[in-house]
Amino acid sequence: MVQRARVVVVGAGFAGLAATKELARTGALVTLVDRNPYATFQPLLYQVATAGMGASDVSYPIRAFAARWPNVRTRRAGLSKVSAGERRVEFEDGSGLDYDYLVLATGVTTNWLGVDGARENALPIYSLGDAAAVRDRLGQRLEDTALGRRQSTHVVVVGGGATGVEMAGTLAELRRRTLPLTHPEITPGQTSVTLVERFDHVLAPYKPRLRNAAAKALRKRGVELRLGSTVAAVEPDAVVLADGTRLPSDLTVWALGVTAPTQVADWGLPQGMGGRITLTAALNVPEHPEIFVAGDLSGPPAPLPQLAQPAIQMGEHVGRQIAAAMRGRPLRPFSYQDPGIMATVGKAQAVLQLPNGLTVHGLPAWLVWIFIHVAYLLGGRNRASVLLNFFWRYAGPRRSATSVSQ
């Protein structure tokens, strides 16, 4: 009897799920490992952070995902060690798994960039727990301001990429459309939303036309833009810029930069920029060709944007290459097919840039943005719930624009 290959996939993000789906078709014994029992749809975390959606809307049980295939198992554990020479991974709970092929898709973590006080006083928005923490802190700040226990709820978002722009735009709409009804005790002067970006524009990967459209839409919603500004320090009640300016901040959201977790250095695998694992064109490790890396932790010869589409395509590619290796076939280099990039600023306003140079902004781009994001969600219930939440938040009563779901 021929022994089936053992494949361990660590990480249930976009890359890990895509790799698992491909590998499930091979008949290999696949084990999907993640420290959480759910997969998170990261592009919509800002909606959870601003109380537009509940945590269950953007998460999906990993066991339910794996149940589609009889040869896929799951394990809830955090990776602690990779013993490449022994072809074994160890977990934080003391257990381990032997493998014939390993897929590392653990993702990355927040990069505080050495900014004084950032880790202690700012909140990131990279995980479901992060988003819930931002939501809870925001809700408490607003409640305290309404009851007179605080003087203000000023929010500073650090980082003018897609996450920062989406967060700032949604907060500004919440401030202008919803708070006057839900928190009538708070005056407009007691709240503000400020976006800080070190470049002189937001959305650096986009064409100038779209950058300008996004900046205009943010300003129209009442966001104060601090472009060309570098953060020197984050204090409990302020963000200090490099020129000495102090921006009052009752809640600082860190949407700037990611890096590989520090423990990756202990795995004995080659690392490059940002701590990412250095790979061949086929997305495996040169010294250990049975180890593949996909998603944000990967360092392929040609750098890729850290977005959902590259992660999904890398995961699919890795799954196909392991299938080829099991059959004794040569590995093929990874080729990214760019579908374009998009970001939303708020109601009826998004920017869309296609690889052929075509740019779209406004309502058409916003509708495309909603359709794409809903389509990529796992589970029919989640897709229906998110679509309903979008409609309710942006077309329903203003007082109903927030969620109480945990």
Q: Could you explain the architecture of this structure?
A:
The chain has 406 residues and is α/β, with parallel strands linked by helices. The protein folds into two domains: 170 residues, FAD/NAD(P)-binding domain, CATH 3.50.50; 201 residues, FAD/NAD(P)-binding domain, CATH 3.50.50.100. The chain is 31% helix and 26% strand. Strands 5-2-1-9-22-21 form a six-stranded mixed β-sheet. A hairpin with a 2-residue loop joins strand 21 and strand 22. Helix 9 runs antiparallel to helix 10. The mean pLDDT is 93. This is NADH dehydrogenase. Pfam families: Pyr_redox_2. One of its GO terms (molecular function) is NAD(P)H dehydrogenase (quinone) activity.
In short:
The chain has 406 residues and is α/β, with parallel strands linked by helices.
